[in-house]
Amino acid sequence: MKSGEAPWPGAALGLGLGLALLTGGLITGCGQDGAGTRDAARTGADSPSPSATPREDLCTRIVTYWSREVLDQDSYGDYQSMGLSNGQYEILMKVVDAARAEKKSKGTPAADRLIDREARAGCEDLYRDGAPSGGPWQ
Prior knowledge:
The chain is mainly alpha-helical.
C-alpha cells in the first residue's frame, strides 16, 4: 500500500461522503431552515426578557434601608457612601426626622411603618414624571 492510499477500496469515498453529510447537516441545521430560530431570536419568544424594576421601587428600597440604619444615630451619614442621589437623600432626611419623633412617641414598630409609608410616598413623588429633571444627582 502506498502512502496516502486508503487501506481498503472505497474507504476514501466513504470517508469523504461521511464528512460531506456531517458538514451539510451542520450547515443546514439538520434539515431545518432555521426560520423558527431566527424568528424567536428577533421577537424574544423563546426566552422572556427580565423586567426592569421601576425607579420609585428602587428608591423606596434604598431610602427605607438607610432610614432604618440611621434612625438611632445623631447624623444622617454621607449620601454618596450610601449610594443615594441628592433627591433620595432629601427624602431620607425627612423620613428619618419623622420616624425619630414617631419612635419617641409610639415606639419602634410605629416608626418602621412610618418609614415604609413616607419613603414610598417621597420616592413616588420624586419619580412621578419618570426621572428627576435637576440633573443626574437629583
